[in-house]
Specification:
Layout: H1 4-22, H2 24-47, H3 53-60, E1 68-72, E2 75-78, H4 79-95, E3 103-107, H5 112-123, E4 127-130, H6 137-147, E5 151-154, H7 164-169, E6 175-181, H8 186-194, E7 207-210, E8 216-220, H9 223-230, E9 250-255, E10 265-269, H10 270-284, E11 291-294, H11 301-314, E12 317-320, H12 329-336, E13 340-344, H13 345-353, E14 367-371, H14 375-385, E15 389-394, E16 403-407, E17 417-418, H15 421-427, E18 431-434, E19 436-437, E20 444-445, E21 463-469, H16 485-490, E22 492-494, E23 502-512, E24 517-523, E25 528-530, E26 533-535, H17 537-545, E27 550-558, E28 567-574, H18 582-596, E29 605-608, H19 622-628, H20 632-637, E30 641-646, E31 649-652, H21 655-662
Length: 668
């Protein structure tokens, strides 16, 4: 027995080594979260309780009924209060003739009413279509028409863009507006509902004024209509109105960001909404004492499904901001006592670029979670704002799977996913990285000339990420885009690993290293070819982002007369308040790219702009920049300035230079 004191530490050290080497405890945490989510989803499908209205009802009728669920602009709603309001909204929607499985479009900025309409629709078995409130004109008309909704509910912020004149200008002629007006004490009604006391139901007081008789109904939501809705009794509809839902049935429509074209309605299934949000709450370890904070738009699945529904599954509170602003972000985090913040990557860059504040570290945060946090921002963000753990995930609304990375140290800092030995073995059959031929447009998977199967990428080699599908039942895991079979077909690749198999194309180029970490490379098509080399726009943007003078950088390839491929161009927003001159900034930028990037990857042109056009989820809209290219007249007409790299320096790109390039008199 004298050797026992020596054996125990040795065994412990061996176990610790194996755990670190193979990520055993890390994998168990993620796999158990996924397992619990899958079991819960299967049970709820069997019980026909996938609709998350039942989750709200469960909390509202349990000992958690008085726990806070929603926090917005200083007001709070408990689960019981929210349930009461949701039932009233459901009753009003029924009065508008909304039927089971009907799609109703919602065009709202973030607010409590957004959630009441959303869950009100679920309470009566209907489906919401979330409209991006930034859309106007042609894009707006397109989203409404592709949703097939006959009823569109619009908040006060969107009233002007839905005027008859604007709609008709863009071909939206099937319009019916409804305006509500009645005699009532709006404040008293709202207070009665919050206190859950009985309120009158004076339907006879309502007067609906129909302005134009058309097939579509545009209903403008305001305080008057809100008060009218509160007069409806909180009526719980029979379970049959929500029945017959499976994990592949539609829960809602959520639109793609539309960075390269018009937005497409992606089907968010009950399986993804219910199981995805439960997986997230379990993985994050969210409990009833947590407060989750998000300033991301609720029309996007990241904030709605993985924000609001994640908090709902955990029985915790979520604080929603009307809109992201670095000026209000930390004030709201502090005021709400948030313990977890939700991000989309570029918002972290904006927060990091903002002036230092005493609130930077004055908070109760234990974690931040989201997607798209760039490697050059990751550690500075954690350090400045004292965030102990980053939970980064990779996913898309229409994607049948995702990647996850819980990072508390530098080992997986910057990675979009991580898996240990056990998880890698379990997931290997469902994931693939395939090599791409970037000389084609768009890039296509490279196939073995003998077998005609796809060539898989080696470790640390970039490839397009694919998720396995059931070739005999594609909709089981990939519900795709609503009423758009051609778009669905374009996302499915067959004969990848074996003849007859089927895979979902993510459209994203990733690489996986030998230690189980997944790294973002680029979008398929964003990588461009120059001087016979592939250039990753994301990797170049990360290099530019390390320069202190640059606030934002968007890298893209541009066509140049007389040259094959695409040359590198970067649109940059410079930080405000810098004492350095433009010449000093450009000299520093030139030295930086020459030092950090190979010749073929260095941006030949720099476009200095005041701001970059982005989607509501902070994705830069590259298409316009690519189309404008280096046409000096167009660029300067936008108020921007072009510089180009000559003899190791960025100098002003002039009219004479543009003429020389057009005439083929410049060697690049």
């Amino acid at each position: 027995m004298p050797a026992l004191p020596l054996i125990v530490p040795a065994v412990a050290a061996g176990i610790a080594y194996l755990n670190a080497r193979h990520g055993i405890s890390y994998d168990i945490s993620l796999l158990s979260a996924g397992g619990r989510s899958a079991v819960n989803g299967a049970l709820n499908e069997r019980r026909d309780r996938l609709n998350l209205f039942y989750e709200l009802e469960s909390h509202a009728t349990s000992n958690r009924s008085n726990n806070t669920w929603i926090v917005f602009q200083g007001q709070t709603w408990t689960y019981a209060q929210a349930y009461d309001i949701v039932l009233r909204y459901g009753a009003w929607l029924k009065s508008q003739g909304v039927e089971k499985d009907e799609i109703v479009a919602i065009d709202f900025v973030n607010s409590d009413a957004f959630i009441w309409f959303w869950f009100g629709l679920w309470s009566i078995g209907a489906k919401p279509a979330f409209i991006n409130y930034n859309l106007t004109g042609k894009s707006l008309v397109h989203t409404i028409e592709t949703s097939t909704a006959r009823l569109v509910i619009v908040d006060e912020a969107g009233r002007d863009k839905f005027s008859k004149e604007v709609m008709k200008e863009h071909g939206f002629t099937r319009l019916q507006e409804q305006k509500y007006s009645f005699e009532t004490d709006a404040g008293a009604l709202r207070q009665a509902v919050r206190n859950q006391t009985t309120v009158p139901h004076p339907l006879e007081a309502a007067r609906i004024e129909t302005k134009v008789q058309r097939q579509f109904q545009i209903i403008h939501f305001d305080r008057t209509l809100e008060s009218h809705i509160f007069t409806f009794p909180p009526t719980r509809q029979l379970d049959s109105i929500r029945a017959n839902q499976t994990r592949s049935s539609m829960a809602m429509l959520i639109y793609t960001s539309g960075t390269t074209g018009l937005p497409k309605p992606a089907v968010m299934s009950w399986g993804k909404a219910s199981m995805g949000s439960r997986l997230m709450s379990s993985w994050l370890g969210v409990n009833a004492d947590d407060v989750v904070y998000t300033s991301m738009p609720l029309y996007h699945s990241s904030a709605s499904v993985l924000g609001v529904c994640t908090a709902l599954n955990a029985g915790s509170a979520i604080c929603i901001s009307a809109k992201f602003s670095h000026k209000t972000f930390w004030l709201e985090v502090h005021a709400s006592n948030a313990t977890i913040i939700h991000y989309v990557g570029e918002t972290c860059r904006y927060l990091l670029s903002a002036p230092a504040s005493p609130l930077d570290k004055k908070h109760n945060l234990r974690a931040a979670y989201g997607n798209g946090l760039r490697p050059d921002v990751w550690e500075p963000f954690k350090e400045r704002f004292n965030i102990p753990t980053i939970y980064e995930f990779y996913a898309a609304t229409e994607s049948p799977g995702g990647l996850f990375n819980r990072s508390s140290n530098a080992f997986s800092s910057g990675a979009i996913g991580r898996s240990g030995t056990l998880a890698s073995l379990l997931f290997s059959s469902g994931l693939a990285l395939v090599r791409l031929d970037t000389s084609t447009s768009p890039p296509t998977p490279i196939r073995n000339p003998s077998t005609h199967l796809c060539l898989l990428a080696d470790p640390n080699e970039p490839g397009e990420l694919l998720f396995a599908l059931d070739p005999h039942n594609i909709p089981r895991k990939f519900q795709g885009y609503f009423n758009n079979p051609s778009a669905n077909d374009s996302k499915i690749l067959r004969n990848v690993k074996r003849k007859g198999d089927a895979w979902y194309r993510s459209g994203d180029v990733l690489r996986r290293d030998t230690q189980g970490r997944w790294w973002w490379v680029d979008r398929v098509g964003d990588t461009f070819r120059w001087k016979a080399e592939n250039v990753s726009t994301a990797e170049v943007a990360q290099v530019l982002g390390k320069l202190d003078a640059i606030q934002e950088a968007c890298v893209y390839g541009v066509q140049v007369p007389g040259h094959d491929g695409r040359a590198g161009c970067a649109a940059v927003v410079l930080k405000q308040g810098k004492d350095t001159s433009m010449d000093e900034v450009l000299n520093g930028l030139a030295q930086h790219v020459v030092k950090e990037l190979p010749g073929f990857a260095r941006p030949i042109w720099i476009r200095v702009t005041r701001e970059l056009d982005t989607t509501g989820t902070m994705k830069v809209q590259k298409q316009g920049l690519q189309e404008e290219g280096i046409d000096l007249g167009v660029v300067e007409g936008r108020g921007d300035v072009l510089f180009w790299l000559r003899e190791g320096k960025y100098v002003r790109f002039m009219r004479k230079d543009w003429e020389r390039v057009q005439g083929g008199g410049v060697k690049l």
